[in-house]
């Protein structure tokens, strides 16, 4: 273990979720881990930040947490906040690391319960945190499992997580504004594929229901539509065929071909 490497772990499911617990444990194999996580679920918050209201951040005592070994506990600090996933990154940077992005070697967000492939990357609080990280020049990786349930079976994905993060951190050329969006299938894994974002959209997204007062409420549901199901180079194709998808993303949303 290299205790000189500082890793920040965040998520959008809140501290205590299965995914972030496993990710925190695994990241101790790479260095010292500082967790800053919401105090509850913040899914689909994208890059939302807390404006016009105060945030809190409290340190969590993990001394009695049997999930981590004593050696792992010495490498972990945990903080929870009432803020959003992007707030977690800003709190880590501006409060815990003295506004010095060079002190954070890697930001890892997840492991998210649910897919962040295709257009879901736009809505994702998991990836929103990564985009906030790269805004400040911090190397950032988001990880998700293609299953919304908790608990879920992370055993097939677990052996890949550390080596993927180590490889991307040490061996890749990180351009400005770039991060990585990793999505894993549920169950047996056939391998790893470099992918692009699939073209897709959501349909039938709003379901009206009458509440007890006779008023119509609108619930967000919907079905995802893959607009190019035969394309074998997309993130959606990869996860639906048993592969881990590794997709480079960027905060630069300029459509250069239109210039």
Specify the structural class: alpha/beta
CATH uppermost class: Alpha Beta
Helical content band? 10-25%
* Distance between the ends: 47 Å
Poorly predicted runs: none
What's the SSE pattern?
EHEEHEHEHHEHEEEEEEHE
What count of structural domains?
A: 1
Give the CA-based shape: globular
| Strand order in space, largest sheet | 3-4-2-1-5-6-7-13-8
The radius of gyration over CA amounts to 18 Å
Q: Could you tell me the number of beta strands?
A: 13
Calculate the mean pLDDT score and round it.
95
Total helical elements: 7
What can you see in these coordinates?
With 259 residues, the chain is of the alpha/beta class. It has one domain: Survival protein SurE-like phosphatase/nucleotidase (Stationary-phase Survival Protein Sure Homolog, Chain: A, 3-Layer(aba) Sandwich), CATH 3.40.1210.10. Helices cover 24% and strands 28% of the residues. It has seven helices and 13 strands. A nine-stranded mixed sheet has the order 3-4-2-1-5-6-7-13-8, sandwiched between helices. A hairpin with a 5-residue loop joins strand 10 and strand 11.
List keywords for this structure.
259 residues, Stationary-phase Survival Protein Sure Homolog, Chain: A, 7 helices, 13 strands, 28% strand, globular
Short description:
The chain has 259 residues and is α/β, with parallel strands linked by helices.
Spell out the blueprint of helices and strands.
Layout: E1 6-10, H1 18-27, E2 32-38, E3 57-60, H2 70-73, E4 76-81, H3 85-96, E5 106-113, H4 120-123, H5 125-135, E6 140-145, H6 158-171, E7 178-184, E8 191-194, E9 200-203, E10 206-210, E11 216-220, E12 223-226, H7 235-240, E13 243-250
Parallel strand pairs: 1-2, 1-5, 2-4, 5-6, 6-7, 8-13
Antiparallel strand pairs: 3-4, 7-13, 9-12, 10-11
């Amino acid at each position: 273990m290299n205790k000189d490497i500082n890793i920040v772990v965040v998520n959008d499911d809140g501290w205590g979720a299965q995914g972030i617990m496993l990710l925190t444990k695994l990241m101790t194999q790479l260095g010292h881990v500082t967790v800053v996580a919401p105090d509850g679920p913040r899914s689909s918050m994208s890059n939302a930040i807390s404006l016009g209201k105060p945030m809190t951040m409290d340190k969590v005592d993990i001394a009695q947490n049997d999930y981590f070994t004593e050696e792992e506990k010495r490498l972990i600090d945990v903080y929870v906040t009432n803020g959003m996933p992007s707030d977690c990154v800003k709190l880590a940077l501006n409060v815990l690391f003295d506004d010095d992005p060079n002190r954070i070697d890697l930001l890892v967000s997840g492991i998210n319960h649910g897919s962040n492939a295709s257009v879901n990357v736009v809505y994702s609080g998991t990836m929103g945190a990564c985009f906030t990280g790269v805004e400040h020049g911090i190397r950032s990786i988001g990880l998700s499992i293609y299953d919304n349930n908790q608990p879920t079976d992370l055993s097939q994905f677990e052996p890949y997580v550390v080596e993927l993060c180590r490889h991307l951190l040490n061996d890749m050329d990180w351009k400005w504004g770039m991060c990585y969006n990793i999505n894993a299938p549920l169950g047996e894994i056939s391998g790893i594929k470099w992918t692009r974002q699939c073209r897709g959209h959501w349909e039938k997204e709003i379901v009206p229901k009458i509440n007890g007062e006779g008023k119509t409420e609108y619930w967000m549901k919907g079905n995802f539509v893959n607009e190019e199901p035969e394309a074998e180079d997309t993130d959606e194709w990869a996860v639906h065929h048993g592969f881990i998808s590794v997709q480079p993303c960027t905060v630069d949303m300029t459509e250069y071909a239109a210039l």
